[in-house]
Every structure is written in structure tokens, then in C-alpha cells.
Amino acid sequence: MPPDHGGCPDPAGYIEAPGQDCPLCPRLVAYRHANRQANPDWFNAPVPSFGPAGAPLLIVGMAPGVKGANRTGRPFTGDYAGMLLYQTLLKFGLAQGHYDARPDDGLSLERVRVVNAVRCVPPANLPQPLETRTCNRYLAAELATPGIRTILALGVLAHAATLRALGLPATRPKFKHGQQIRLPDGRHLTDSYHVSRYNTNTGVLTTPMFESVIQALLPTLEPP
Ligand code: SF4
């Protein structure tokens, strides 16, 4: 049963997305099957994007967490990473409702869509380079959606995957927290450290740091 996406994720159905049994990454398929055996009531499938298609802000994460998005079926939902992300979006009026770490918590996104660079949960939270490249076709489909003005990449992997999906060199420029790049197509790419529990626990990313990133990109969401 697909999760409630709190709005209209893709009403026209025109953004290419993987099926529930996408076979393209053998290691991730095996892990998916193992998770389905062990926890049949979990989502255990490529996690769909969350938020309205064509939103001016596309937030790109890394991959689902096994007990987070892989369990609930909604990006950044069910484990710690969603706390900072969605609380911040709520604070800046980019989300409505209440985040309660469940796909039926009523949270809806306004002018934001959230996607992972790799749609399937990887063992040990770490996708392999080939898996990231293989799933890049779905990120490219998201990035081709009309209406996107700014992409927020959460972490090095999301930064590189975004550039690659746009047909650009994956490390030029390199990831740098807080930087805002003007892409050749005129859109903006902003980098932030990932909102993971590890990063917040170690002080790599604090709440004020992440709020600064979101605040700085708000003007880029408006038409020129
Ligand atoms: S990570 Fe992407 S390409 Fe690989 S199996 Fe999952 S949905 Fe398919």
C-alpha cells in the first residue's frame, strides 16, 4: 500500500519512477527481499518522492534508512533524520501540519519536494558507487521536472549525484556546506551537510547552521 504523500506527489504521473520490485541493483534487491522476509509489515521497496511535483525546491537526500523511510515509505520519516529536516521546513513555511515520524502524520510540503539519490535502502546505510549511478536515471527524471528553481543537496553523495544527473562533472565544483552554485541551466544548487543523527550529534550540523542554509536559499525560490 503506497504511503499517503500529504498532497499530490505527481498527479500527472509524468515523472519516471522505479516500480516496487525494481531489479536494477542486485545487492539492494537481495537486501529488499531479506527485509521483506524479516519485516513483512514494512514498506521495503524503492521509496517514492514526497511533496508536489514541480515544486521550486527539490531536496536531495542520500538513501532510505532501514528503519526510517524503508520502514515507513516516506523520505526522512521514521528515524532521526526527519526531525531536523521537517521541523526546519515547518519553521520557514515550507511545510504545513505536524511532523510525527509517521507517513499518516498529516504533514504536507509547500513548494518543496524531497527525494533520495538512491531509492532503495542499502546495507549499512551506504550505497555503492554503481548503485548510485544506476539509480541516477530517476533523479535525472526528477530534475527534469519543470518548475524547479533550486536543488538542495544533503551531503557529498547527493551533491555528486545531482551534478551527474544534470550531465555535469560530479565533483566540479566540490561539495561545500553552505555554498550556493549557479548551474549552467540557470537554476541554483545549494549544499548542506546531511541532517543525519551522526552529524547533529557530533555538531557537524547544528540547527542554526541548517536554518541558515534554508533561509539563504529562500530568495532563489521566487521567480526572477
Ligand atoms: S536503487 Fe534505484 S535503480 Fe537500484 S534497485 Fe533501487 S530503485 Fe532500482
Please characterize this protein's 3D structure.
By secondary structure, the protein is an alpha/beta fold. It has one domain (about 5-220): Uracil-DNA Glycosylase, subunit E, CATH 3.40.470. The chain is built from seven helices and seven strands. It has a five-stranded mixed β-sheet with strand order 4-1-5-7-6, sandwiched between helices. The chain is globular and about 50 Å long. Bound molecules: iron/sulfur cluster (SF4). The site of iron/sulfur cluster has 13 residues, from helix 1 and helix 4.
Provide a quick synopsis of the model:
With 224 residues, this protein is of the alpha/beta class.
The percent of residues in helical segments reads: 25-40%
| CATH topology grouping | Uracil-DNA Glycosylase, subunit E
Mean pLDDT: 92
The side-by-side strand order for the widest beta sheet comes to 4-1-5-7-6
Work out the helix count.
7
Q: Class, according to the CATH hierarchy? A: Alpha Beta
Number of strands: 7
In this structure, how is the largest beta sheet organized? Answer: 5 strands, mixed
General shape: globular
**What letter string, H or E per element, gives the SSE order?**
HEHHEEEHEHEEHH
Tally of individual domains: 1
> Between the first and last Cα atoms, what is the distance in angstroms?
40 Å
Strand content: 5-15%
From the helix content, strand content and strand pairing, which structural class follows?
A: alpha/beta
| CATH homologous superfamily grouping | Uracil-DNA glycosylase-like domain
Rg, Cα atoms, Å: 16 Å
Q: Bound small molecules, which ones?
A: iron/sulfur cluster
What's the CATH architecture name?
A: 3-Layer(aba) Sandwich
